[in-house]
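**Fold tokens**
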Amino acid sequence: MQHSLSIQARFRPEVIERILRVVRHRGFELYALNMTQCQNNENIHIHLTVSSKRSVNLLSAQLSKLIDISYVEIQQ
């Protein structure tokens, strides 16, 4: 089953690597990733599409614990 997540994070070189590592370690498969830089150049908005039989709430909870992540929202 596919799930979409919207993530707001501080713009740091390592933040994408951290997000992708959590996605992989939690057993989710990445289908799409779109990143845009916000106008203030300090934050980025990331839209992820992932797939797994696991609950997307597990992934959302783990991502929100990462440093530099402001919020994680599950898109319906």
Observations:
- Residues 12 and 68 are 8 Å apart (CA to CA).
- The longest strand covers residues 2-10.
